[in-house]
TrEMBL record, chain A:
Role according to the record: Component of the adaptor protein complex 2 (AP-2). Adaptor protein complexes function in protein transport via transport vesicles in different membrane traffic pathways. Adaptor protein complexes are vesicle coat components and appear to be involved in cargo selection and vesicle formation. AP-2 is involved in clathrin-dependent endocytosis in which cargo proteins are incorporated into vesicles surrounded by clathrin (clathrin-coated vesicles, CCVs) which are destined for fusion with the early endosome.
Assembly notes: Adaptor protein complex 2 (AP-2) is a heterotetramer composed of two large adaptins (alpha-type subunit AP2A1 or AP2A2 and beta-type subunit AP2B1), a medium adaptin (mu-type subunit AP2M1) and a small adaptin (sigma-type subunit AP2S1).
Matching SMART domains: Alpha_adaptinC2 (SM00809)
Superkingdom of origin: Eukaryota
GO biological process: clathrin-dependent endocytosis; intracellular protein transport
Stretches assigned to the Clathrin adaptor alpha/beta/gamma-adaptin appendage Ig-like subdomain domain: 730-843
A molecular-function term among this protein's GO annotations: clathrin adaptor activity
Name recorded for this polypeptide: AP-2 complex subunit alpha
Top-level taxonomy: Eukaryota, Metazoa, Chordata, Craniata, Vertebrata
Gene3D superfamilies (UniProt xref): 2.60.40.1230, Leucine-rich Repeat Variant (1.25.10.10), TATA-Binding Protein (3.30.310.10)
Region (Disordered), start-end ranges: 624-666
Membrane topology: Peripheral membrane protein
Pfam families assigned: Adaptin_N, Alpha_adaptin_C, Alpha_adaptinC2
Subcellular location(s) of the protein: Cell membrane; Membrane, Coated pit
Automatic annotation (TrEMBL), chain B:
Classification via InterPro entries: Adaptor_comp_med_subunit, AP2_Mu_C_sf, AP2_Mu_N, Clathrin_mu, Clathrin_mu_CS, Longin-like_dom_sf, MHD, Mu2_C
GO MF term list: lipid binding
Protein name: Adaptor related protein complex 2 subunit mu 1a
Subunit comment: Adaptor protein complex 2 (AP-2) is a heterotetramer composed of two large adaptins (alpha-type subunit and beta-type subunit), a medium adaptin (mu-type subunit) and a small adaptin (sigma-type subunit).
Residues holding a 1,2-diacyl-sn-glycero-3-phospho-(1D-myo-inositol-3,4,5-trisphosphate): 367, 369, 371, 380, 382
Function description: Component of the adaptor complexes which link clathrin to receptors in coated vesicles. Clathrin-associated protein complexes are believed to interact with the cytoplasmic tails of membrane proteins, leading to their selection and concentration. AP50 is a subunit of the plasma membrane adaptor. The complex binds polyphosphoinositide-containing lipids.
Species for this entry: Poecilia formosa
Protein's cellular compartments: Cell membrane; Membrane, Coated pit
GO CC annotation: clathrin adaptor complex; clathrin-coated pit; plasma membrane
Amino acid sequence: MPAVSKGDGMRGLAVFISDIRNCKSKEAEIKRINKELANIRSKFKGDKALDGYSKKKYVCKLLFIFLLGHDIDFGHMEAVNLLSSNKYTEKQIGYLFISVLVNSNSELIRLINNAIKNDLSSRNPTFMCLALHCIANVGSREMAEAFASEIPRILVAGDTMDSVKQSAALCLLRLYKTSPDLVLMGEWTSRVVHLLNDQHMGVVTAAISLITCLSQKNPDEFKTCVSLAVSRLSRIVSSASTDLQDYTYYFVPAPWLSCKLLRLLQCYPPPEDGAVKGRLVECLETILNKAQEPPKSKKVQHSNAKNAILFEAISLIIHYDSEPNLLVRACNQLGQFLQHRETNLRYLALESMCTLASSEFSHEAVKTHIETVINALKTERDVSVRQRAADLLYAMCDRSNAKQIVAEMLSYLETADYSIREEMVLKVAILAEKYAVDYSWYVDTILNLIRIAGDYVSEEVWYRVIQIVINRDDVQGYAAKTVFEALQAPACHENMVKVGGYILGEFGNLIAGDPRSSPLVQFNLLHSKFHLCSVPTRALLLSAYIKFINLFPETKATIQEVLRCDSQIRNSDVELQQRAVEYLKLSSIASTDVLATVLEEMPPFPERESSILAKLKKKKGPGAVSVTELEDSKRESGELNGAGERGPDPSVMAASNASTPSPSADLLGIRSAAPVSNAPASAGSLLVDVFSEAGPAASSGAVNDDGFLSSAPPSEDPAPPLSEAEELLNKFVCKNNGVLFENQLLQIGIKSEYRQNLGRMYLFYGNKTSVQFASFTTTVSCPGELQSHLNVQSKPVEPLVEGGAQIQQVLNIECLTDFSDAPLLNIKFRYGGALQNLTLKLPVTINKFFQPTEMASQDFFQRWKQLSQPQQEAQKIFKANHSMDTEVIKAKLLGLGMALLDNVDPNPENYVCAGVIQTKSQQVGCLLRLEPNAQAQMYRLTLRCSKDSVSKRLCELLAQQF
Amino acid sequence: MIGGLFIYNHKGEVLISRVYRDDIGYVLLQQTCGKSSRFLGNSCYLGVNMRNAVDAFRVNVIHARQQVRSPVTNIARTSFFHVKRSNIWLAAVTKQNVNAAMVFEFLYKMCDVMTAYFGKISEENIKNNFVLIYELLDEILDFGYPQNSETGALKTFITQQGIKGQHQTKEEQSQITSQVTGQIGWRREGIKYRRNELFLDVLESVNLLMSPQGQVLSAHVSGRVVMKSYLSGMPECKFGMNDKIVIDKQGKGGASDDAGKSGKQSIAIDDCTFHQCVRLSKFDSERSISFIPPDGEYELMRYRTTKDIILPFRVIPLVREVGRTKLEVKVVIKSNFKPSLLAQKIEVRIPTPLNTSGVQVICMKGKAKYKASENAIVWKIKRMAGMKESQISAEIELLPTNDKKKWARPPISMNFEVPFAPSGLKVRYLKVFESKLNYSDHDVIKWVRYIGRSGIYETRC
């Protein structure tokens, strides 16, 4: 709006505005406005034509009323009329009104567009600028449709004034942002790029904004801008501060232009042309050098401008990530800023360092600043800067300094701001896990974490501790001890109680030997926390109690007493009540061996990428995941599983280093269900070929469809069964479910059910790594004459197993006649480059087809006598391998599948069982007698079956079990 | 119970602030605690809270973008009840679930009391009398519970003269105490007048919404009986009117022709409320209104009727749109009462469209003018006798706009004053008995006046 001067000013408008301002109340204001509107209406309606001045005045008043928040539904026509005026002020007000009040009124839009077109084609630069500004301010689709083709012409025309060019560039940018599909650069591209060479710095500045935006969308078309930008930049950087006159800002030559140029360069990879690259490196070096020079002015504007360029240059260096020398220099420069007086600079330095830490060249250089960063974390006054410092610590952490950093972060956590605590906790948890050299340190760290900032420890963190403790038997004892000690603190956090309850419930027995932590002491300790906890924790504690009953029978009475009391068994919370009732019944009714089976130690968790990492990522929002973390986790993925007593598997390490076949999503530990498309899979397998000694047949198998896979024999022979296969088999004689096999890569779980002569077995193949398994195949074979005894049908499995994923296979088993061997399971897959091949015995034994038979003492002995032929009987006397606990033995015998008969044998110490083995061809009756001798730790096992081969086989199998 | 009472000016500045309950905190605490550090953080916090509440009302009601039409506003679980008198906002604030009618009754009473003490309620007057207002607030609200708000009674002990030279005698003090705490709190003993006079006004406002065809869509009369009594001693009064129930009851006992005659004249009162001096038990049992009147001016009763209303004026509108740019309006008003009576202050307001660019008016009687600031043609007639009619015609020029919305045609409204009660209410008697002092009903000079005004009196066009 033009200044209201006496000559050209609009007195009526000034009076009106002052009237409005003097209004005492809203009503008075509305009245005044109504009056003015009526006046304007009558003026516009009036027969005699208004002169330009009054038209301008009234349009201006309308605009003012509109800006006060009232609807204006007339006057558009008058405003459009103003556009055709030759006076600058009138035209200006007209355009102002249009850009504020335009709506998609078709007839008016046509008129407006006409007026704009006239102005654009006039040679008057002021009018052209006004028109361009109006287009940019409205920026609607209609405008884009009408002028998208016109503006580039103005932009690149040789005779266009510089100021118009600037406006045109920015106007085009606006149109491109609103409707990119309408702005087609096409033939103009190269000429627009050449605007970078324009004499006028203003034009270059405006053009760079446009080019940056355009090249982000289609980088290839604008590739040529790189060399131009570099030369422009070098000219600016090398110019003396006086060269650019108008564009020198506090002794810094064209700072905005430089920043924009550097930002434009960040859209592209490093220039391939050596000369250009050399020139650019030179520029960057000059910028870095200039930062070292003493400031030419004490003014803050000078240093701001200088630093702005510097930071953009550093971002570019980080973006290129190819010049070790520059990276290190940038890092050192940032290191100086870390102690700068300006908070903003410290913040920016920390932020940039974070990205620098991810570069392999500068990681070490960043690490040298660790003391400063830790100091910043402790002393910084601004919370956002502290947050950055914590981020940087996280980013610069590696195996060498993990202990120090984690310790520092832990100690800072005690005083940290509430807003960043949860994130800090997650970070500490991740670092502790990722760089854990020995797991007792890990356990210590996490327990400390819970102690210090229990409220901020999310579920995921303590889940993870338990997963790790369960999966590694070497820390279990230590964990139990530490937790026990931690729980002794007078006040401990609920999360600590949860961890404590879980770990003591599982591994309390490991420390029970010490009288200071005898079972009863443990229980009392846990129970002393019970009443202070919330419902979920109480539920967990109840489970821990029942586990105690199993672990320490001597605590049974005490715990039952606790469970029986009204506050448990009649608890108002359904979950707690149910648990109390069920556990009480379980402990009092079930026999010890049932209890032992039900409350068996937790099986190891399927190994997978930490869920904490996923949580951190979710917290920071998508896109915030820095490359560092990805690469770190890639780098460390091998170590994570391999660390500890086993040591990293060299082949695995080699594989993960040699090939990077998996998409990054796998590394995040998010178990993505989305199947990976075929293309990367085949690419992966091609890569694999280079590194594996396998022939081409194998790689073709990887990409072929399922039908081919299952029928075609694999090129390699199945590996011989593992040496421990027999042992594994024995584990499953008396149970149907469990983990069949596990190594660093793969875990195979098993679940089976049998009815009569039929069985169904579910195999679960879990990928413990973060890399997918390619060409995963499984074959079940029945060697030798087993083929005629047992019929096993399997469905083929998916050839790809994603990292951390699990696939399932179903086997249908039919027992044709009795058998003694076990079917073989051969598994082949490619992990990284290496072909993995292993063969296992499937735990299918004859006893699985047992049908229990109940009979009285009389019947039993009658049948016993009937099976009196010597070949029908098999007997074995052997030493006990396990404890001779009655309940355990009973549980095992029941697991065998036979009926355990009470009150049959005159000696109550002895166990007697009966059952019928169902095969397709016949039924085999079996009787069993097991006589333990507790003193000698010996057993005598006698089996009598209607078929002699069965007795022998059963006797072999069972002898291993006790 | 009211938590606090605030009076704002039109800018939203707090002129009077009186807090009765802690749950809404105290606005001044904020300022006090800024000055002295003796206040603990907690009370500061409270102050901040209240500050928020006071600001909340200003932001959400006084300075709201849209006009707030509801007199009750709930902001952050705090209820604000407000009434507006010219440019002044009175807001009662509470956190509890109070009887809203009670709060408004109190606010109106508060306005009456203030008017009785210092005339018109304006920012100027409130600023000049703030000490008095705080004194009044102390008296008429205790812990947020309304107390005696009878102006006459209040005036005996809250005076504008300040404390007089000599202190009030013990007698006077005890008299005040016994009166304020006694059974008849609204009247003191020992009043004496040379002339016993009594003024009785029946003030009614008639509300109407009529369709263009002359069909009554809704109509009701809300009336008040206001009295001014200058009577000596402790007189017992009895007020009688043509209430249908009373007349019918009497008709049953009396002659049958009398009942037929009075049945026509009696009115059906829908609901009514009384001044506290009226003996409600007697009203309930005998439907007779008997009371010991306060001294001075007071409102004896309020009532509402909806049946058999005499509509003093009939408005017949005729609106014709000629093309997009012209509108012809013709409005006829007819007076519908006895020719001997004169209506006064008649004003007809004809709304004009928002895109009016010019108006020509011709009227036979009175003056008519287009008021742009109100978007209406205002036609004023000073006087008009009954059974007459008058007409106005106007030509409105319109500016074509690109607004597609059609004009909503707001109703034509009307204001007037007539010297009768549109509800048909008649005062049958007002008897005064004073047993102790020696004057009888005949010695009292009584004046009765009827005034009917327009409330919202609208006709659609």
